[in-house]
Design goal:
The chain has helices at residues 5-19, 144-147, 335-338; strands at residues 25-27, 34-35, 170-175, 195-196, 200-209, 216-225, 229-237, 243-244, 256-260, 264-267, 283-285, 290-299, 305-306, 309-315, 326-331, 345-353, 358-366, 371-379, 385-391, 400-401, 419-420, 425-427, 432-440, 460-467, 476-477. Strands 21-19-18-23-16-25 form a six-stranded antiparallel sheet, with no helix packed on it. Strands 3, 6, 10, 11 and 14 form a five-stranded antiparallel sheet that branches. It has a five-stranded antiparallel sheet with strand order 8-5-12-7-9, with no helix packed on it. It is mainly beta. The relative contact order is 0.19.
Length: 479
């Protein structure tokens, strides 16, 4: 397809804007960690089963705090007079991680959440009778509304607020207003701030420095944000800017931290335990590092939304970091989107030829509202085909982790159920990575490659890896 000069110029500009999103759960570039606009934990699936009550706690790769209830304090010593029994719970409800923590019986309480100031971390779940759940049963991200039932800012999304780590164990950064009553009081004129008006869609950068006077190393990260975001790409920047700006720079080539395509994202993904093959992974945060938060938000509701993000970063001993993660960003040709006319259907199928030895750590597909399916599979050099990723809902795009302990949900194409393969995922010379975007153009104009959810499309396979880099823009169209 040939593009006129104007369209071609727009294509190049948009491609450059999004290329910065070629990132992993960790950072950007082949030799430094990359940040993926993707989530590290599907809400309904990919849940690891915690150890039974009579087995030793799992090794999370973190030092076990000793001054936080729930880590070394016997449960019976923490219950007090407000003990809860099983009489008001339906049978088996205590084994469901979605059961509110204030309703679980005493025998299931790993520690008392009510009144906590910090997320304790460690290997003990808040509800020891239920499996790990990254949002609802996770000692690294205790929700504000569970610690304080009266927590109410007056804005939608309070359920995503999380308590920070103990300052001895980690740090919380993010995007926060100074006041919930008047969030935009200090936002400069002509710049959109924390409040996103109804009917608005915007990609915009926020800048804030990490409040650390000394560098630290880290691996485990937890990200939560209020609803309304299509992606957030977080990178370490040399910029001295602060607060909200009109910049849309995605941080191309910069090292990043955890990003997301949904309100929740975690590293490690889907497990409390750090997989043994990930034990050497980590990064370094320089003292006073400025962070660029590149945020794509949309508000299709009839009420204003508040943009707010919480990121818990947990310290790790620098001597334990032995392996650097790289990013996966395999792009379908943006020009192919321009050829899809109003009402037309197309399956854009791309292939990445593997030339080196690579371990794929995570994968997530990135697309917009016209793509009804994003699928990926590997065709081995011997002809064997392995399905590795399926996603059907653009507003809830999962990231799956491939290792020796994560159990990803099984995909079902007929029922349109998201899923992925489980186990270590390694590729080598002669293998091919395939991915497809099943697109129906619902506009009255041709599609375009653009950073708008409803009026533009993308077809990109993101992820993280160790070993050799993969393809990038060097894909070939299969159909």
């Amino acid at each position: 397809m040939s593009l006129n000069a104007k369209a071609h110029g727009a294509l190049i500009g948009l491609f450059a804007l999004v290329l910065g999103a070629c990132s992993s759960e960790d950072g950007s570039g082949d030799e430094t960690p990359l940040v993926v606009p993707g989530n590290d934990q599907p809400m309904a699936g990919n849940l690891a089963t915690p150890p039974a009550d009579d087995t030793p706690p799992v090794d999370t790769g973190m030092d076990q705090p000793t001054d936080v209830p729930g880590n070394d304090t016997p449960v019976d010593d923490m219950m007090g007079d407000d003990a809860t029994d099983d009489t008001d719970l339906p049978a088996g409800a205590e084994t469901d991680p979605t059961t509110p923590l204030d309703q679980i019986p005493d025998r299931c309480k790993g520690f008392d959440v009510l009144g906590l100031e910090y997320s304790p971390g460690g290997s003990v779940l808040p509800n020891t009778c239920a499996p790990f759940h990254n949002v609802l049963n996770n000692p690294y991200s205790i929700r504000c509304i569970d610690a304080d039932p009266s927590y109410d800012t007056g804005w939608p999304g309070d359920e995503w607020c999380i308590l920070p780590p103990d300052p001895e164990l980690g740090i919380q950064i993010g995007v926060h207003p100074e006041s919930y009553e008047n969030p935009d009081a200090s936002v400069p004129p002509g710049v959109l701030g924390f409040v996103l008006p109804a009917g608005t869609e915007v990609t915009q950068n926020y800048y804030a420095s990490v409040p650390n006077d000394q560098a630290f190393s880290f691996y485990r990260e937890v990200l939560r944000m209020r609803t309304g975001s299509h992606h957030i790409i977080n990178t370490m920047t040399g910029s001295s800017q602060s607060g909200w700006t009109n910049s849309q720079d995605t941080g191309l080539g910069a090292e990043g931290i955890i990003g997301s395509q949904r309100p929740d994202s975690d590293r490690p993904t889907g497990t409390l335990e750090v997989p043994p093959e990930n034990a050497g992974h980590g990064q370094t945060m320089p003292a006073g590092q400025n962070i660029q938060y590149n945020m794509h938000h949309f508000n299709f509701s009839e009420e204003p939304m508040l943009r707010e993000i919480w990121i818990n970063i947990w310290f790790k001993d620098a001597s334990e970091i032995t392996e650097q993660l790289g990013g996966i960003g395999i792009f379908g040709n943006p020009a192919d989107l321009f050829a899809i006319g109003p009402g037309e259907h197309a399956e854009l199928h791309y292939v990445c030829d593997v030339t080196g030895n690579t371990r794929i750590v995570t994968l997530n597909g990135h697309r917009h509202s016209h793509t009804d399916r994003f699928g990926a599979w590997i065709e081995r050099a011997n002809g064997e085909v392995q399905s590795v990723y399926e996603s059907f809902e653009y507003q809830d795009m999962p990231t799956y982790q491939y290792d020796s302990i994560s159990q990803n949900p099984v995909a079902d194409l007929d029922a349109r159920i998201d899923g992925a393969s489980s186990g270590l995922l390694e590729v080598g010379p002669g293998d091919e990575i395939h991915f497809v975007c099943d697109i129906t153009n619902r506009l009255d104009t041709n599609l375009r490659f653009a950073n708008q959810v409803d009026t533009g499309e993308m077809c990109i396979l993101f992820g993280s890896r160790t070993g050799s880099s993969l393809c990038g823009m060097n894909t070939r169209r299969e159909n």
